[in-house]
Design goal:
Elements: E1 3-6, H1 12-23, E2 27-32, H2 35-45, E3 48-51, H3 57-70, E4 75-78, H4 99-109, H5 111-124, E5 131-135, H6 142-145, H7 159-177, E6 182-186, H8 204-215, E7 226-228, E8 231-232
Parallel strand pairs: 1-2, 1-4, 2-3, 4-5, 5-6, 6-7
Antiparallel strand pairs: 7-8
Helix pairs in contact: 1-8, 3-5, 4-7
Length: 235
């Protein structure tokens, strides 16, 4: 039985990823910072709940101890993410973004990935086929951001794309440093979720597909890559 932890899994893409992986036979931990919402989501899914706020060392360490006590971990999906939103669901652009806003986004999207990965790595290294999936974004691609013919070029926000580009760099470095772990970044696509005020163009079912696919790769699968549902993406 493959055991998987998903951060930020009480709703949205994380919740749907949990549903699909349970259907595929995984034992899934729903990681959530809100205990009530997390427990309800786990009950709905037939999953296990673990209290986990990716910005808080204490809950991350306690979650790692709880999962270890239950038997260990094979797959970690770093899904929890945030974006800065202002009035009318707008994102602060280059003229308006502040260091505090950048720090807040990076605390979840970047430092949270490092915090959780560091805490769970000892468990993953005991697995016969450890896998880490970092949920990135198409906005992480500097190639696309700088291409006036690509839709991503027109996204005005600074904090979120920068944080996800950092996630991609982390993915590459972890993959090189941990050759026995399959570690990849994925772009789920522009999805209708609370993160973007439900303005996305695809469903959570569609978005979860690439995450689920990369969560199920074997020891001979790719590592250090950046993928969407159609294949590798340019950095």
């Amino acid at each position: 039985m493959t055991t998987t932890l998903i951060t930020g899994a009480n709703k949205g893409i994380g919740h749907e990823t949990a549903r699909q992986l349970i259907a595929a036979g995984h034992t899934v931990y729903v990681g959530a910072r809100d205990a009530e919402r997390g427990r309800l989501a786990a009950e709905r899914l037939g999953a296990r709940f673990v209290l986990l706020d990716v910005t808080d060392d204490a809950t991350v360490e306690a979650a790692a101890q709880a999962v270890e006590a239950d038997g260990g971990l094979d797959v970690l999906i770093n899904n929890a993410g945030v974006e800065v939103r202002g009035e009318g669901n707008s994102v602060p652009g280059a003229a308006d973004v502040t260091a505090d806003q950048m720090r807040s986004v990076f605390d979840t999207n970047v430092f949270g990935v490092v915090r959780v990965t560091h805490a769970f790595l000892p468990l993953l290294l005991r697995s016969a086929a450890p896998v880490v999936v970092n949920v990135s974004s198409g906005l992480a691609s500097l190639t696309h951001l700088s291409d006036p013919d690509h839709p991503g070029h027109f996204y005005p926000g600074v904090a979120y794309p920068a944080s996800k580009t950092a996630v991609n760099a982390i993915t590459v470095q972890y993959a090189k440093g941990l050759p026995n772990v399959r570690i990849n970044a994925v772009e789920p696509g522009f999805t209708k979720t609370d993160l973007n005020g439900n303005t996305g163009t695809q469903t959570v079912e569609q978005a979860a597909e690439i995450i689920v696919r990369m969560a199920r790769i074997g020891p001979d699968g790719p590592t250090g890559g950046y993928f969407d549902a159609y294949g590798p993406l340019p950095w």
